[in-house]
Specification:
By secondary structure, the chain is of the alpha/beta class. It is 51% helix and 14% strand.
């Protein structure tokens, strides 16, 4: 759709691979199933949005708190921009745990796989695939608790602004992708109409 993809998750995983002080700090939060502090994520998100020209981008996994949302609104307003649409994907907890716990990372290349939706090639030995610490059931349950406390309130925040679109995330990758594309297309038509 001609939009830059800005994923705080990808940025956080890249930072975790760094042997820097920031990387160590981020790693400690993620491995414990906690949210990375807003100041760190905000710096990464701001840099990525600036690189995208603060236009035509999709933020993936950001904002995750009301503090981040109000900062984002102020950051965009200072640049005469605003969010057009906020998508919230809904999936029951048991499906979230099942999906996330099936993700694997290649030990040497860092390539991400999903045992059901994006399996590794047959020539990849099973002992080369690692399950991330934050993809274990215990950490996922902790992440869901944090989500309910810190992120779920964002639905009301963006609903009040008329920007929230809730997406049913049950189904195949293709099904959910089509729901997302349709929701974005409807918003564009409604905004232009």
């Amino acid at each position: 759709m001609g939009l830059s993809h800005i994923s705080t998750g990808i940025m956080i995983r890249a930072a975790m691979r760094d042997e820097s002080e920031a990387g160590d700090e981020i790693r400690s939060y993620v491995n414990d199933g906690r949210l990375v502090p807003g100041r760190l994520v905000r710096m990464m998100a701001e840099d990525a949005m600036e690189q995208a020209g603060v236009d035509d981008f999709v933020l993936d996994g950001y904002p995750r708190t009301l503090e981040q949302a109000t900062w984002l609104d102020a950051f965009l307003e200072e640049r005469d921009k605003s969010l057009e649409t906020v998508l919230s994907l809904y999936l029951p907890d048991e499906r979230i745990i099942a999906r996330l716990s099936r993700r694997r990372v290649h030990r040497e290349t860092g390539v991400n796989y999903h045992l059901d939706f994006n399996p590794p090639p047959p020539d990849v030995p099973p002992d080369m695939l690692l399950q991330r610490t934050d993809d274990r059931a215990e950490a996922i349950k902790k992440r869901l608790d944090v989500y309910r406390e810190s992120t779920l309130p964002l639905e009301e925040y963006f609903r009040a602004q008329g920007k929230l679109v809730r997406i049913d995330a049950v189904g195949t990758v293709e099904d959910v992708h089509e729901r997302i594309r349709s929701a974005i297309a409807r918003r564009v038509v409604n905004d232009e109409g």
